[in-house]
Write a structure and sequence with these properties.
Strand order of the largest sheet: 1-2-3-4-5
Radius of gyration: 16 Å
Helix content: 25-40%
Strand content: 25-35%
Largest sheet: 5 strands, antiparallel
Distance between the termini: 40 Å
Shape: globular
Order of helices and strands: HHEEEEHHEH
Number of domains: 1
Structural class: alpha+beta
Length: 152
């Protein structure tokens, strides 16, 4: 399927329901459903919000846990945007953990993505961006998500 690489979900008045997402993703919707269902097994929740600076709905993946004193903590482990026929998932790897990420059991292609990722301005993070059309990359995505959610 040919896509136009156009970011969708730009209307602030139309919230990203499962029907809206399914229409935007077309064939990739099954991959999105599998991804969203698997997040439960990794204690990650999706939170949608309209961002006026980017003029689009984005989802952030929140990993929530209880700290040593019983206080609920959360950290963002990914950002998700919906495009015409696929969804884009961005995972930020801290500079100090980049070498550890390269030692994960990932394919050479994904290790290349991690090693070639450029630092974001003055931030000490490297974005690893996945364009997800199918289930093929989901195991690697979850390996990276489990890695990043355990970085303190």
């Amino acid at each position: 399927m040919k896509t136009t690489k156009e970011q969708l979900l730009r209307n602030p008045d139309i919230q990203p329901s499962s029907d809206v997402i399914a229409k935007a993703l077309n064939e990739a919707n099954n991959t999105y459903i599998k991804f969203a269902n698997e997040l439960i097994n990794h204690n990650i929740e999706i939170e949608w919000r309209y961002y006026t600076d980017g003029k689009a709905w984005l989802a952030k993946g929140l990993y929530k846990w209880k700290g040593v004193r019983g206080v609920l903590k959360e950290t963002t482990v990914f950002w998700l945007s919906v495009w015409d026929g696929f969804f884009k998932l961005t995972i930020f790897i801290p500079e100090k953990n980049r070498e550890d990420a390269l030692n994960l059991p990932l394919s050479d292609d994904i290790n290349k993505m991690i090693s070639e990722s450029k630092q974001m301005g003055k931030l000490k993070f490297f974005p690893v961006v996945f364009d997800l059309y199918s289930d093929e990359l989901l195991p690697s995505v979850f390996t990276l998500l489990d890695f990043t959610k355990n970085i303190k």
